[in-house]
Amino acid sequence: KQEVTQIPAALSVPEGENLVLNCSFTDSAIYNLQWFRQDPGKGLTSLLLIQSSQREQTSGRLNASLDKSSGRSTLYIAASQPGDSATYLCAAPPNDYKLSFGAGTTVTVRA
Amino acid sequence: GAVVSQHPSWVICKSGTSVKIECRSLDFQATTMFWYRQFPKQSLMLMATSNEGSKATYEQGVEKDKFLINHASLTLSTLTVTSAHPEDSSFYICSAGQGTRSTDTQYFGPGTRLTVL
Fold first, then answer.
1. Strands A105-110 and A86-91
2. How far is the alpha carbon of B101 from chain A, nearest alpha carbon, in Å?
């Protein structure tokens, strides 16, 4: 069974600082790796999807890397803003069927 | 962009009653819809996958007689929590996709907060 862990569980940084969020997974035979954002009491918004054959994916200030051999992915958010405050979830499906989510990292960006 | 709605956004009910939650894809036809459950500070857990016109596929440990799923059309799926109890209180999120796998791009609804007294 795929186990997905996100560390730290919470993170607070001043505005402008770069954010580094970690995701690790136990089964490296993943189909893809996805990062989502969840605002309090809301659903999920897809941020980035890295195919298993890729090493990284970028969108604006967001960059996600994938190292399947070590079972890790990292989400970088450059020049953080208060609007980046949210919970960030990663999902590492081990097959083409079920998204296995981590518990998330809750980010607070202080103005 | 693809939009998925859920109704209601929150509901409070008495123990023993049944609650129906609707999930709609507003601007696309969803081949498959997924239902998740999320407890505070925890991961989303997939409950079931529903395809239009066929029976839902439930994950291990999810009681299909308690969580009734109906996928009546390509734009509507419903989750009915039957004889709800306080331990069913949770945040329920649906997602809709145009593929048949949960790893195809999914569009998530805003969630429904269920509180059972």
1. antiparallel
2. 5
